[in-house]
Design goal:
The complex is a heterodimer of chains A (600) and B (212). Chain A is α/β, with parallel strands linked by helices and 600 residues long. Chain A has 16 helices and 18 strands. Chain B is globular and about 60 Å long. The chains are: A alpha/beta (600), B mainly alpha (212).
């Protein structure tokens, strides 16, 4: 991988891309395949999935059986480097520690960022999701519609490889023919959920995840994605041939050494590097976008973490894709006489309207699933099936008490035994120990099904980030302070999730444990903890009330673009990553077009 | 007192990255992460993942020989040998317990006094009833004591702490046992092997469960 150090960087690039995750990876890919010269700056270290991924390691090979610790919160083998809920030397501040007022910020400091470990759930926003204000008067409309983004959803699905199905359901878009890979076969518990939830009128359909359930179409897809660009087609075909399909084992959260799922480091960056147009500097902590006398961005300043020195890189265009909050932080810290409150912040909206996903969880134990014969249920690591939001009509009629929907992710099965497998089951065993306990564990293993609601949060004035006046990180860069507040639209939705999951578990003949939480304010997971944080530099049709236009170009600085989740004007229940990538591709196409027209 | 749930269940904000499968001990709770661990302790934020670790490799083990003897007897009372698999102590559970109570992380440090004082309680109770330490008591005597504390919901008020200790200890013992190769085999886990294709649930099983 042609990584470069600050000293060996070329004198000028067409585009600087800050960040190497879903947004940065897609941006660099699109730009490089079409000939732009790109410098990517990543705050974390170089990371190589082919040689670093613990694919078949078992918990007994790890310290503490691999369970999560403050240093590796999602477990020892989670593909997160130097990150988690806290990053050493990089604090942030919370205006409140109250439950419901607290914001959690998951970061990673590694090439590919959080794409290395993400859940790979890849759902499209639907037509309603781009025009929420028009539908119910709350939040904001996007200045673009589903039709603007649909061709890019097709492209991203073809490029990264997404399984799923087309069901023709309301606000749950179908993909163009040939875009989706076949979904994996359901598990026993999936069949049970589908049957019993179905009896309650709840639709259960194949999930969508960025996992190769078969080899990619390396002959057809490259031509479809890069029409008229023979070199790009050749490079992409080679990259696709180098990706193996899923081997139906090993948790995706560890990353994938055979490149069977999407992570930026295995899907976006290899072909982008193969063009020869991409240089990547890792350990480069960007803290400022610098402005020329002409009012245009002329580059970025960063700390080279390997030497502690401050460096500057220049380019014709600057793209921030550092993650929603980190991009906002960089801009808020980029102060000048012209922009005393942060660059591109003439609207005062920078850092505002942070959103996460509404999350709530219920687990059930299902006697029908007890004592089943041995089954290999590793599958594609979950989300074979899911429930899209289904109560549009009731919501429109005002019957629900909250304005936006949620989808349901669920899973059960005989997963690899972990430290949770036999923990806390006295409520089932009566506190057995000895041979009886061993019989009990065999009986109950695989009989649990967990339900996670994932719902839309409406942006509000009380959820935002700003620069803390005092606290700085270990390089002296001022840090973010977070403010957070849910509205009743979110807490009522969380309570509805609890009731619904209880109903489904009951319909499965199961028992809920621990008990349902009827108070939505307690049932809702803390802000940020679902790690779907978006907003902070929302796009809009009006420069007075938004930070970027429909092309993710900042209103104030014409050669400054944002291609991460910061531009989201709403946060549909659909997990944001696929939309981040589709929008990044679209913005990069726009940058290329304007560079060709010499406007940038 | 630290609630047992927060002691042992490093639960569950799973949300984020992947769906939830059953009750998880591992991971994710941001509150726990904010409690932190001292810099320079533990395995750090970028440990070598491909290395195979044994208890004692990253931080020193701290239980005394007498404590380890008691630990072994107790974990074998919880998971004895049967016709399917050996006893807990045969697969390294004592080393795991020692690793856990010796670890620099907050949950582990919370568990340490619960477990050490639980050991002391077992010895004291055994001396009171049988005139000798728990390790030296007859099997029937050991079982009689465990019967009194194996279910916190039924334990007498004066034995609540002991019952809570027993629950923590059982969770740790079971976690270590069922994540060992013999524990996986005992449960009939047959995954973690590469497959060319995944066929899903067997049709005959679905038929039997009236799901097909």
């Amino acid at each position: 991988m042609p990584l470069v150090t600050p000293k060996s960087q070329q004198r000028a690039y067409d585009v600087i891309v800050v960040g190497s995750g879903a947004g940065g990876g897609q941006t660099a890919y699109t730009l490089c395949m079409d000939g732009a010269r790109v410098l990517m700056l990543e705050a974390g270290r170089r990371y190589t999935p082919a040689s670093e991924t613990p694919m078949f390691q078992t918990p007994d090979m790890a310290p503490l059986g691999g369970v999560g610790t403050p240093q590796k919160p999602f477990g020892f083998y989670d593909a997160t480097v130097d990150g988690g809920w806290r990053v050493p030397g990089e604090p942030y501040v919370r205006a409140s520690e109250e439950y419901g007022g607290r914001f959690e910020w998951w970061r990673a400091r590694m090439l590919g960022g959080r794409t290395n470990h993400w859940g790979r759930i890849a759902l499209r926003n639907g037509p309603y999701d781009f025009k929420p204000h028009s539908r119910d008067g709350l939040g904001f409309d996007w200045p673009i519609s589903y039709e603007d983004v649909a061709p890019y959803y097709d492209k991203v699905e073809l490029l990264v490889g997404v399984y799923g199905s087309n069901e023709g359901l309301e606000n749950t878009p179908d993909s163009s023919p040939g875009c989706l890979l076949p979904p994996p076969a359901p598990l026993v518990s999936d069949h049970l959920v589908k049957q019993r939830a179905g009896r309650l009128g709840i639709p259960v359909i194949p999930g969508h995840r960025a996992v190769l359930t078969r080899a990619q179409d390396h002959q057809g897809a490259p031509a479809r994605l890069h029409r008229g660009n023979a070199r790009a087609q050749k490079i992409l075909a080679e990259s696709m041939r180098g990706r193996a399909p899923c081997l139906w084992a090993t948790p995706c959260g560890r990353g994938c050494s055979i490149r069977a799922n999407y992570q930026s480091t295995t899907v976006h960056l290899p072909p982008a590097l193969a063009t020869g147009n991409l240089d990547i500097t890792t350990d480069a902590m960007v803290y400022e976008v610098t402005l020329g006398r002409d009012g245009r961005a002329n580059g970025v300043s960063f700390v080279d973490k390997t030497t502690g020195t401050h460096q500057h890189a220049t380019a014709r265009v600057v793209v921030l894709a550092a993650s929603a909050c980190e991009s906002a932080r960089i801009l808020l810290n980029s102060r000048s006489a012209q922009f005393p409150d942060g660059l591109a912040n003439s609207s005062g909206k920078l850092g505002r309207y942070l959103m996460d996903t509404v999350g709530s969880t219920v687990t059930g134990q299902v006697p029908l699933l007890e004592s089943l014969p041995p089954l290999n249920e590793d599958a594609a690591d979950g989300h074979q099936l899911y429930v899209p939001w289904w109560l549009y009509r009731e919501q429109r009629a005002g019957k629900l008490g909250f304005a936006r929907g949620y989808h349901i992710e669920f899973g059960g099965g005989k997963r690899m035994p972990g430290h949770d497998t036999a923990a806390g089951i006295e409520w089932l065993t009566g506190g057995s120990y000895g041979k009886k306990f061993k019989q009990d564990v065999r009986r109950y293993y695989g009989s649990f099904v967990g339900f996670d609601g994932r719902g839309e949060m409406i942006p509000n004035e009380n959820s935002y980030c700003e620069i803390d006046p005092v606290v700085k990180d270990k390089w002296g860069i001022p840090v973010l302070r977070f403010h957070w507040q849910w509205s009743e639209h979110e807490t009522r939705q969380a309570a509805h999730m609890q009731r619904t999951f209880g109903d489904i578990i009951e319909a499965m003949g199961g028992r809920v444990h621990p008990a349902l939480q009827s108070d939505g304010a307690k049932a809702i997971a803390p802000g940020g903890s679902i790690i779907h944080e978006v907003g902070g530099a929302i796009m809009g049709a009006d420069r007075g009330t938004s930070v970027t236009n429909r092309w993710q170009q900042t209103w104030d600085v014409p050669n400054l673009f944002l291609t991460d989740g910061s531009v989201f004007a709403s946060n549909a229940d659909k997990n944001p990553t696929l939309t981040i990538m589709a929008l990044a591709w679209r913005a990069a196409d726009h940058i290329l077009e304007r560079m060709r027209r010499k406007e940038l | 007192m630290v609630d047992r749930r927060t002691t042992i269940k490093w639960v569950i904000t799973v949300g984020a990255a992947w769906p939830l499968f059953g009750p998880r001990i591992a991971a994710a709770n941001p509150v726990e992460a904010w409690r932190g661990s001292s810099p320079g302790q533990g395995y750090g934020t970028d440990p070598k993942l491909l290395q195979v670790y044994k208890p004692g490799d990253v931080w020193p083990l701290t239980l005394t020989a007498a404590q380890r003897r008691l630990a072994g007897i107790l974990c074998d009372l919880i998971i004895p040998a049967d016709e399917h698999s050996p006893a807990a102590s045969a697969v390294g559970v004592v080393d795991f317990i020692d690793e856990w109570v010796s670890a620099p992380y907050p949950n582990c440090q919370d568990a340490r006094p619960i477990i050490l004082s639980g050991f002391e309680w077992l010895d004291a109770e055994s001396r009171r009833r049988f005139g000798r330490d728990f390790s030296a008591a007859e099997a029937a005597g050991q079982t009689a004591i465990c019967d009194d504390i194996c279910d916190a919901s039924r334990a007498a008020a004066e034995r609540r702490d002991a019952a809570r200790f027993f629950a923590v200890y059982r969770d740790l013992t079971a976690g270590a046992f069922y994540t060992s190769p013999v524990g996986r085999k005992d449960l009939g886990y047959i995954g973690n092997v590469p497959l060319e294709h995944f066929d899903g649930a067997p049709p005959e099983l679905l038929k039997k469960l009236q799901l097909a």
